[in-house]
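Please annotate this fold before class:
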Amino acid sequence: MNLEFRLWWYWLIIVTSGVTIFSISLVILPDFMQLFFNAMFFSHSQAHTSFSEVAYCYIKFLYGVLGAVMVGWNITLLFILTGPFLRRQREAWYAMTVSVLVWFMLDSSFSMSAGFWQNAVFNTMFIVFFAIPLVATYRYFQK
């Protein structure tokens, strides 16, 4: 495996693992993650302090479900990366790229339409971390 491809592959492994850890924290550290999102979404207001106990519990439940789904998605990405992507199978590159793009477009457009532009900005960081190595490896899958 050539050195340049290996660099981008490791980058994708690290980013995908990082998203997996973030996702696991939604499941096992929902209170901490709610503080994180409260700071991101409500840093200039106290709106989050008006949530009832029922709303707070429901938000924690949704973080857990979201985290579980994201863990499943990212474990799938890791299997793609360690198998067919590493073997430079064209479908693996497309599976990674389309999966990340669909997530970004749906999540970010929904966030914007719901008035939570901060999440779209947060998503942009992740799409850049995925896009750089995916663009860099494109040519390895076109042979």
Summary: The mean pLDDT is 92. The chain has one domain: 3-40+49-141.
